[in-house]
Amino acid sequence: MSSVEGDHNTDDTSVNLGDHDHVGDKDNLGALLDDIEAASKVPPKRRQTNIKPTVESLTSVLYDRGALPDELARLVDLVTLTNHLDQASKGAIIKNLYPVGKLDNESVLRVVCALGHGQLKPSFPIQTLLLKWLIMVYHLLQDTSILSQTYGVFFNLLDTAAIRPQICHILALITRRKHVKPFRIQTILALSRQTGNDPNLTGLLRVFKNYYPEIIVGDATKGRAATFKHPDPQWRARLDEIQQQQTEAIRDGTARNGFAVRSAFGRQQMGAKGSLIPAVHTLHAQENSVTLEEVNSPKSLAENLEKIELPTQLVAVLADPLLQKLLLLRPDAEGLSRVNNWVAACLDDVRSGDADPSLLLDMVDIMHDYAASTKTLPPLLINFFRQFLQVWDGRDRREIVVETLSFLPLMNFKELYQTLLQPFESVLLDNTSESQLSLLTFYTSLLRQWTLTMLSSESTTLSSSPAPQAIPALIAHVNTLSLTLTQTSPTVSTHLLILDFYTLVSTRIFSSPSLLKHIPITIPPSLLIYTLHFSHSLEVVSRLCGILATYKRAWESVMVSTSPSARPLFAEERQQITTFNAFLMDLCNVLWRGRAFAVSDANAKGCLVPRTLEAALRGYLKKVEPDGELVLGSLFGLSHSPVLCLQSISYLRELEDRELEGEMDISDRGLRARHAGPVTQQSLVALAEKGGLEISWQEYRAGVLRYLEERGFKGVPELMYNTMKNLMKGRQ
Fold this sequence. Notes:
732 residues; mainly alpha; two-stranded parallel ribbon; 35 helices
């Protein structure tokens, strides 16, 4: 921000426009105004920087977006009050003084007060510009009577030749019958004779005579008269654009909520997409009906819902939020049939070559907006996409197509797959992992929409809905896709996207008693669980364990008779229980028991590692560590796991640091040894014997779980607390 240094009343005053260079800052109108106001208080010769570039930036911003009321008030003060700003700068500001919204009375009065003779008044060229500006913004006055109240001020300035044309124009605008007085007629006649029948005075006199045709003014009105045309039509056109943008911004806030039609101007702003669909326009409305264009609020929509006349072209429903609301609240079969015919005609035009294929992509954009607004795809749009997929290349507007199709309504998955999703996959998949990830994103979004639909439905209707069949079928389909992705794109980002899907399944569906009571539990495939568990990312391992813990609670909720979601197990669920128990046993063996890849325990599958591979790993370990200190079964536990070892040793280091910080002095009683890591049960015993930290193996492991929880990695602790009986009791 600019700063003024020194005393303006001394000769050594200097002005610095500040450390901020606002030239080129096209949006910071307030900062530009601060600089110019500061510079206007000091003579030009005492300014350290040139103010003209700042004025140019200011006028550019004003031309682009206009001035808000508070900014306008400051600008009017700047050009009307006495200061050291040069006349050219003031003129440039006035010529770009575009108001946004209405013009308040205070700004108008400040301009009126700046007119006339006197040392404190602006120069006559500036007064001329101010009067022209007042004429051009007359229709924006908040209260037009304010100029009527200052009629006498304007009239008394008629003898000032420099501003007489503009004064006459203002008077012609504001003159009403009450202002036409005999003394004013005599004054104008006298001035007209003195000035040789000034056309501006003649024009004003004709305005007077229009109100009182019977008055006798002789030949004064027969001469050439001014027509009082608009001073600058181009300026007015730009002002109208700025005002319209402001109006659209206000209306769009309502339109986005679905309670105002989208105007033609707003549709032009949307480009080709907006011009493709006709605007809402109602012809042949009945006398007692209400048109959609008249609705502008939720209240007016509710009050006139049954009386609203449908617009002439119902296809506008694809782009207009208010019409979408109306047809959702008051469905019209004939109207939807007309929309369907219009969409079918567009498809036929593209197939026959009468229309460019890009037309369909523009239609997809429009349908995306419609689906995002209504949160569903009606049958006519589903039919459109069936035919659209026959000509789509799978790349253009891929994200828009994927997001739009995610609003498909909940229906039988097998039928949906055969009629729409299989053709969609055939076009989308191009033997790249990127296309497979797009497909996974689609199914995640689709499941999210279906979940919202189920949660908003009555629980009693779920059993008869497609949900009990559709949700397990969708999960099973994504199971295969996820396994494929772990092979084609074995990266952490891919693993996290896969976990996004299963997090949604476990936390939104199988954690909801109302949904769990009707929807069979469907678990991820074994290979996927073990592949993700041996990821090199702690975030992946933690989230996977959290998902399995949520699944375990879902199984318990179904099988416990006192649970609100208790029910008999479905046949497909019984087949999965053994597999899921294997997940739990194998992960507990790996993380907690030091028995990785063991198959001797009940339900254990050894993470599906072949016995020949396990033997090869043991042989390799003996070569690396001949002493036998490292055991294959413990290499993936809390202390040795590549993703957990840092957290484990950091926990022990913090314990040792706290122990050292708690010592009052250096003595033999302090820590005489620190653990080198990694931690084992035997190493903790040896550490205590050497004078190091005394902590049991069980305390250490429980502490590591707490340490992980505190740092946001809650999945591993959650799974252990929900699976290991001794930890359950300790937790309680």
